[in-house]
Amino acid sequence: LRPEAGRIAAATDAEVAVTTQKVLDDERALEEGSTLLVEDSKARMRADHQQEQRLKHETSEAWARLRKACFQLRLGNLHDFARGIVDGDFDFRPPTESPM
Fold this sequence. Notes:
mainly alpha; rod-shaped
C-alpha cells in the first residue's frame, strides 16, 4: 500500500501544480485585460473631457454673439420707436368725418 500512496500523492501534486499554473495564467490574462480596459477608459475620459471643454467654450462664444445680436436688435427697435414718435405715428388724430 505504501507505494500506491506515494504514486497517488505524486499524481495529486502534479494535478494541483497544473491547476495552480492555469489559475495563475488566467489571473495574469485577466489582469492584463483589465489594465488595457482601464487605460482605454482613461484615454476616452480625457478625450471626452477635452470635447466638453471645447463645447463649453463654443457655447460661451455663441451666447456672447447672441447677446450682442439681441442688443443690436433692441437698439434698432428703439430707433424705430423713436422715429415713429418723431414722425407723429403715435399722435392722436381725431376721426375724420365721413359723409353719409
